[in-house]
């Protein structure tokens, strides 16, 4: 794996060189992990002309289960830094100067004003520039190793969900169902949940990011569930909506079919070269033309990877085009205040048509199941 | 409750006025919650000369379970801001200028360089100053309402732990025990766990912040557990170490007694007016003089409240003195690489001697239980 991280750092180094800064300081944890294989708490990465260096706030965990950074990296540990004395970012800037750097590109969207000021005061002659989202941009297109982690995570989430569906649901609370799903994710080998599991019943169903409450599942409810597994750091997402009881009401069937059609339209729009906003529009216009345009979520999907909400955003104003090997969610939904709603959410990888089109990672059925 | 939040905002306003800035922008979520009663995702608080205003990234949840901000606040919602267009902090600065503000104190330890720059570019004539940790300082001393939330949280954690101890432990993994504890916290009314529950067995026992693994509990192990409940936003912490099996080894009894003595010394040093570092030293020197000075955690305890790790820090270099009504943890521990160790952790509230001294919130026994 070491070569993978070295190659990623090399690509970043090329970008930095192209924009005039030979040295970069990466502080955002997911970016550190992407470039170094691990992101110990508080650690930053200094990419200089010569050696790459990780500066850690404290000693690396001696435990075999702890993620270890790439062995090709030089590691510097700040003595006594864990009690707040000594910021790895400041120490890294200091080392950059000692190494002859005249400018340093930092992640201005992650560093706080106070830390930035601390760097300036310790290294007043160092010119600080903005690395911007350079690492986030590198992270958008995944390699097959990364996709394989997402695929395993999706299998775990599918399995946790299918087991839940085999159990009795009526009478159980949203909170309990969410906790049970999270336990099953871990049972099946996830590092943990990819985000707070959302379970919504009855009037709460179909709300994006609904925080589980003590409401119990009742006959006739819609039940919507959104969960994901983290596997080796990679986070996927699946969302499904079910009906409780033997016979869904007409409005439930109609609403389900509509959201299903919108989600299918979004999935089918996942073609290499498609504009992000065209994918969003494909799904959104189905809901819009049925009169549900008001109150829709501002996005139809988003990238996933080391974070659950990455670039790209599939939204009306998003700029950019899909590439092959970009994993995204497609997750339209409709929520009717007081009644509930439907949300269907898959994680897919953009693939060329010649390879069979988008690869669906979350394969749980999207038929309307009556449980 | 509304008066409580208004009074807190008034105290902050007085501090700002004293330091020359009539208007403050609060962005750190725990600080927003402290002053407004709720912190919707991305929301910031603008404290001006006249009205207090919350600027939200999107509409407030219509759900009855969502926390609602103080009704005395004016609420401004940014239309369409949820897809990334429009930063509430920038909008708030703009409103401050419209309201006649000439300077604005911001939380430089929370705002990123990029957001700070966005504020400057939208409001170039506004003088930006640093609010520093003013709100965090207000948060150190708790009122009885806050302490009561911590007390309930501690009761919940005690209960979750006592139920776990009644079950069979041998053969179960650290991960499962941690998940079970978290489920029980929620069962007993917690909003959720206060932090990632830590369960360490055998060689993993006694490590601060140990991330649960698939290691199973074995006869003869030390088992250390650290958990906490969040109740109405307030987070407490309890840590205990047990032995598995009927007869602890001599080294286990000795190590336990030592850590127990250190923890008691720390607790007994919790007197109003005591220096933070003297509390740390009281616990630390017990371990130090027994030859375990090397490799100790850099702190012996810390404040708790809306965040699990607040001011003060009980550490060798910490500056400041304890006040009455400050809740802190006392959590010394020793970990012997390859063998495991002991960690004992309580949440207590500093109280005057006349009121009976420190109030212990986490009341689970600290006898060495053999399970």
UniProtKB/TrEMBL annotation, chains A, B:
Q: Where would I find the Creatinase N-terminal domain in this sequence?
A: 8-141
Give the domain of life: Bacteria
Peptidase M24 domain: residues covered: 149-351
Q: Which Gene3D superfamilies match?
A: Creatinase/methionine aminopeptidase superfamily (3.90.230.10), Creatinase/prolidase N-terminal domain (3.40.350.10)
Pfam families linked: Creatinase_N (PF01321), Peptidase_M24 (PF00557)
Q: Where is this region: Disordered?
A: 193-214
This one is known as M24 family metallopeptidase
Q: Which organism is it from?
A: Streptomyces xiangluensis
């Amino acid at each position: 794996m070491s070569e993978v991280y070295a190659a990623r750092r090399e690509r970043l180094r090329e970008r930095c060189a192209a924009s005039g800064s030979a040295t970069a300081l990466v502080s955002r944890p997911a970016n550190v992990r992407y470039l170094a294989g691990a992101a110990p708490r508080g650690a930053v990465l200094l990419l200089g002309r010569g050696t790459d260096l990780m500066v850690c706030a404290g000693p690396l965990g001696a435990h075999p289960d702890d993620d270890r950074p790439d062995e090709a990296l030089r590691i510097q540990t700040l003595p006594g830094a864990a009690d707040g004395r000594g910021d790895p970012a400041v120490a890294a800037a200091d080392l950059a100067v000692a190494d002859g750097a005249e400018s340093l590109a930092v992640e201005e969207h992650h560093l706080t004003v106070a830390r930035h000021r601390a760097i300036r005061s310790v290294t007043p002659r160092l010119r600080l520039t903005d690395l911007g989202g350079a690492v986030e941009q590198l992270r958008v297109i995944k390699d097959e190793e990364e996709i394989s982690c997402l695929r395993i995570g999706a299998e775990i989430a599918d399995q946790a969900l299918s087991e839940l569906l085999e159990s009795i649901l009526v009478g159980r609370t949203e909170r309990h169902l969410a906790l049970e799903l999270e336990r099953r994710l871990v049972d099946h080998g996830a590092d943990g949940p990819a985000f707070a599991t959302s379970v919504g019943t009855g009037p709460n169903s179909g709300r994006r990011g609904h925080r589980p409450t003590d409401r119990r599942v009742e006959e006739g409810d819609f039940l919507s569930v959104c969960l994901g597994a983290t596997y080796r750091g990679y986070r996927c997402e699946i969302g499904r909506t079910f009906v409780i009881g033997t016979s869904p009401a007409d409005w439930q069937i109609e609403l389900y079919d509509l959201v299903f059609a919108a989600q299918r339209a979004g999935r089918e729009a996942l073609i290499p070269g498609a504009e992000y906003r065209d994918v969003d529009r494909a799904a959104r216009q189905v809901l819009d033309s049925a009169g549900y345009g008001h109150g829709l979520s501002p996005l139809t999907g988003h990238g996933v990877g080391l974070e659950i909400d990455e670039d790209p955003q599939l939204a009306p104003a998003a700029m950019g085009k899909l590439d092959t090997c970009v994993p995204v969610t497609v997750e339209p939904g409709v929520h009717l205040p007081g009644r509930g709603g439907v949300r269907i959410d898959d994680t897919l990888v953009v693939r060329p048509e010649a390879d069979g089109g988008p690869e669906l990672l979350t394969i749980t059925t999207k038929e309307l199941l009556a449980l």
